[in-house]
Amino acid sequence: MEKIDGIPTAQLSLTVKAELVPIFFQLLGQGFKVNAQLGCSVKELLCNQMGIHENYLTERIQTIFLNAKVVDDVKSANVNEDSVLALSGAMPGLAGAILRSGGIYAGMRSQISHDKNMPSSQSKSGQITLKLWNLVVKELGPTFLDRGIWIRGEELQSFIKRHWEVLRAGCIGAALDGKSATVDHLQNTTWKSDLVFLQVNSNSTVA
Q1: What are the chain's domains?
Q2: Whole-angstrom Cα distance, residue 163 to residue 161?
């Protein structure tokens, strides 16, 4: 078991039936940690580091929150240590129009818009919290899960408990810290406050 900043970590890899993947989206909506090179713009982080195509960022990700503030300019908003970044597709109604990044109603929400003049920190490696919502989690979620996300052990333990029957039926294989494990073993694992690096891929992606 490795450590990050003195915190014990575990690595869990799951292979599941394709129809089971969407239940993991709730973990992505609640927020998960990703490793990143910090002190950069939102656009650089998403496109250059996370591999999100620029056209997707422009056309599909309609609302971006950085530390609970709406981002209107992804080139000038900077991501620093412990930033919380939320990505969403179009939200319904007037509220969605007002919150849309760079939308015509941006002037109506000056109090909740991200200050593009906020300074960036020095470039360094670290982690941020990323949240994926609605359309974005459906389209990008499988890729992030396959690549791997960091979550707290308590969150994983609660998730396994809530979805135990479905996981037991739909999990094809599991490996914990590089060793084969059963779903029953996972249910009985006490994760405590450990960080867990979780990877989920479906049987449809297995060669």
Answers
A1: 1-32+134-207 (no CATH), 40-121 (3.10.20)
A2: 6
